[in-house]
Amino acid sequence: MNPLDATKSGFLVCIAICMFIYTFIYLKNTLSEESNEQKFTTDTTECGFYPDELCSALFVGKSVASQIGNFCQNTYQPETLSCIQTSCNCSVVLKNLHFITRPLSEEEGNFSLAYIITIHKELQMFVKLLRAIYMPQNIYCIHVDEKSPKDYKAAVQNIVNCFENIFISSKKESVVYAGFSRLQADINCMRDLVHSKVQWNYVINLCGQDYPIKTNKDIIQYIKSKWNGKNMTPGVVQPLHMKHRTRVSYREYVHSGKSYVYPTKNIKAKPPYNLTIYFGSAYYILTKEFVEFTLTDARAKELLEWSRDTYSPDEHYWVTLNRLNDAPGATPNAAWEGNIRAVKWKDQEGTTHKGCKGHYIRDICVYGLGDLQWIIESPHLFANKFESATYPLVMDCLERRYRLKVLQQAEVPIEDHWRFQENNYFNMKLNV
Ligand SMILES: *[C@@H]1O[C@H](CO)[C@@H](O)[C@H](O)[C@H]1NC(C)=O
Ligand SMILES: *[C@@H]1O[C@H](CO)[C@@H](O)[C@H](O)[C@H]1NC(C)=O
Ligand SMILES: *[C@@H]1O[C@H](CO)[C@@H](O)[C@H](O)[C@H]1NC(C)=O
């Protein structure tokens, strides 16, 4: 083939691909005339059946979809959730926010999860997370940062009031990043949870920027099959480069809206009971018996006191206790196993992922549209981190797909208000 022919055929292939893409996008558009929910202008035609068609393309990793998606998510104002700015009565909250109101199977009805959710901002994101993980047989403790604005707290309280199995923790902390208050917030919720009437099996902690990848049923089946009766606390013996976290005493600085922890020159005493300190994830999945143990055991109590002036104690406290031979459900020989959280760490670029398509905050990826395929293909139960205000389409796609998956697995008749969309424009052939 001479060079001119090669250029020509390359050009033709290019044209063919372009035509294919345009046909794909326009075809369903012309079929969509009867949809009166969406008004198509010349600018928005290429957004197709927004957002489902774009989501389908994003979930299979079509790179052109990210570009179109960025355009479309700016064109379409993200739907603001009802009952957030204005208060509604509870029957409207349940209906309009599409809360699931009955256990979806006998297996799920028999196995209760407790959730601890620590939040401080972004009400929309909290409601999206809550309505995804909410099941009437579960129980939810919400820790709202003491620093949060009054109207934020009131709005959360308004929604929580509609549910018997959701409550705000009785004791609130002003949470400092990497500080003891972060650990204390979880413990406050645990104290409330062990006294609750609901008999739960496991507790899972989440923050306001997490979102589930697996359904309630998937989570239960994962726990039962791989961890039956055991706690999940990914982590290892404290490595050398983490020793500074517990070697000197740290202090929390809180002043006029700013807060952080800083090291002092004071060397700390050895850990109580000669405990070996581990280092791991602040995210856990724990049995009720283990939680009761951490609230009452003398070693746990002294470790907690000793941890007060350490750096990010939530990253050593749970894993250290769960490596004790005699703790209920302990896993003394475990390491990083346990698929709790999908995170794109900056320093794992090129190993566990191929870069962040959103942006990094403190070396953790805030997911953009180009991260959607990686997220849904992850084996983890939840993913972090999301900002629905920055990347609204990321949340729209995940929410809609997630709810379809949940309802597909349901073994009871589905109520209309559980559905997010009347018609489903996801390309189900692609299994998205
Ligand atoms: C809740 O509000 C809706 C709409 O404003 C109204 O139709 C309904 O009767 C109210 N329900 C109760 C129980 O007050
Ligand atoms: C659920 O619990 C009921 C009553 O304890 C029991 O009969 C049933 O077999 C359980 N179902 C499953 C799927 O575990
Ligand atoms: C403390 O633990 C270390 C290793 O875990 C062990 O070598 C040492 O003998 C222990 N000391 C005491 C006083 O128990």
TrEMBL record:
Pathway the protein takes part in: Protein modification; protein glycosylation
Keywords assigned by UniProt, alphabetized: Glycoprotein, Glycosyltransferase, Membrane, Signal-anchor, Transferase, Transmembrane, Transmembrane helix
Chief site of localization: Golgi
Superkingdom of origin: Eukaryota
Short name of one Pfam family: Branch
Gene Ontology CC terms: Golgi membrane
Record localization: Golgi apparatus membrane
UniProt family annotation: Belongs to the glycosyltransferase 14 family.
The name this protein goes by in its record: Beta-1,3-galactosyl-O-glycosyl-glycoprotein beta-1,6-N-acetylglucosaminyltransferase 7
